[in-house]
Design goal:
It holds the Pfam family Ribonuc_L-PSP. InterPro entries: RidA (IPR006056), RutC-like_sf (IPR035959), YjgF/YER057c/UK114 (IPR006175). Belongs to the RutC family. This is RidA family protein. The protein has 128 residues and is α+β, with helices and mostly antiparallel strands. The chain has two helices and six strands; from the N terminus they run βββαβαββ. It has a six-stranded mixed beta sheet with strand order 1-2-3-6-4-5, covered by helices on one side. Strand 2 and strand 3 form a beta hairpin. Helix 1 packs parallel to helix 2. It starts with a strand and ends with a strand.
Length: 128
C-alpha cells in the first residue's frame, strides 16, 4: 500500500525528521502537535489553556489537509507535563470534538520540545 505525505502551511512545519501526517489507505497518522503558531513558529503565550487550544488548531489544520476533520479521529494521545492540567485539557478538547469522542490516552511526561506543556498526536480514519 502506498503512503501519502500530508502537509499544510496552516500547521507548524516539522521541526525534525518527520511529516505532519502520513495517509495509508483511509487511515491518517498525525504526528504530535505542540502549541506552535504556524506563522511564526513560536510557542503561543497565555498558559496551559492557550497551549491546548493551539494544539487542537494545529491538529485540525492537518486533518483538513488530509481531507478529514477532528471528528474523524479515532485515537488521540495527549502528553502533559503536569497532569493537574487534565481537566483543562478535557474542557478544551470538548470545544473541538463532538461525541462520541475518540479513544484516548493522557500521559504525564517530564518534558516536551521547546518547553511546552502539552502535545497531542492522533489517528484519523477517513469516511468514519
Amino acid at each position: 500500500m502506498a503512503k501519502e505525505i500530508i502537509h499544510t502551511d496552516k500547521a507548524p512545519a516539522a521541526i525534525g525528521a518527520y511529516s505532519q501526517a502520513v495517509k495509508a489507505g483511509d487511515t491518517v497518522y498525525l504526528s504530535g502537535q505542540i502549541p506552535l503558531d504556524p506563522a511564526t513558529m513560536t510557542v503561543v503565550e497565555g498558559g496551559f489553556a492557550a497551549e491546548a487550544h493551539q494544539v487542537f488548531k494545529n491538529l485540525k489544520a492537518v486533518c483538513e489537509a488530509a481531507g478529514g476533520s477532528l471528528d474523524q479521529i479515532v485515537k488521540l494521545n495527549a502528553f502533559l507535563t503536569d497532569l493537574s492540567n487534565f481537566a483543562t485539557f478535557n474542557e478544551v478538547m470538548s470545544q473541538y470534538m463532538s461525541q462520541p469522542y475518540p479513544a484516548r490516552a493522557a500521559i504525564g511526561v517530564a518534558s516536551l520540545p521547546k518547553g511546552v506543556q502539552v502535545e497531542a498526536d492522533a489517528v484519523m480514519v477517513l469516511g468514519s
